[in-house]
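queue> holo job accepted (manganese (II) ion)
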Amino acid sequence: MKICRFDDNRLGLVQGESVLDVTAALDALPAYRYPLPRTDQLIENLDMLKPHILEAAKGAKAIPLAQVKLLSPVANPGKIVAAPVNYKAHLEESRNDVEINFNRKVIEIQTIGLFLKATSSIVGASEGVAVSMPERRNDHEIELVAIIGKPARNVSKEDALDYVAAYCIGLDMTIRGQEERSMRKSLDTFTVLGPWMVTPDEVGEPNSQQMVLTVNDEPRQNANTGDLIMTVRDLISWASSFYTLQPGDILMTGTPDGVNRVTPGDTISATIDKIGAMKVQVRAG
Ligand code: MN
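queue> job finished
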């Protein structure tokens, strides 16, 4: 199942080149009042909602994908967990390029651990990326994203994929410089999620996904998640040994080599097998 959020917070079921408006399914969500749980209610209730989504899809009019504004498939994640330097070739390029490492030692993921990004940085594919510090180097990083579906604490590697509700494409936009990753990667619009989310039954093995990123049709990144240093299973298990992963939490699994700058006016195209493709415009911010 491919589920999107679009236009004015509509819920969509993606079929081929069309979106079926299934917003009526959200009526099945329980009523909430303050204080809200630190979870995403759509993801937390996704299994319960699936029959409602299919019911709402019956007779729903098909809207061409090209006509809708795609928002982040997850509206309210509690946290964004992200993996640094999780591909060997990207570790090497980071160590070899002073514009990436700023004369700091690039430490392996197993030693430096995972980092967190601000949830305020999240946008969908159609919302675009804003470059608010054009004097700095602003880089693209394509990443496979796993969306956590249920509370995960001290999960084994063997069981880890049972905790994934869906996958999507992520752009972990980054300013290069001396600051901590959590600051350099948390500017508004610097976490692009999309174009929609795809349930695990349609994705299969997350460790063999080809991913391609181009800028203005120029090849930049082209790699396979089979080259991840820490796999999706490893990352979920490891993260959950430090903190509880909650429904809706976003896990960005790291970017391969080929990272490079973008500037206002650029168009980023990002594709991951069995998930889809998205175009993201870069503008001055
Ligand atoms: Mn990254």
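queue> The pocket of manganese (II) ion is lined by residues 82, 141, 143, 172, 252, 254-255 (CB under 6 Å).
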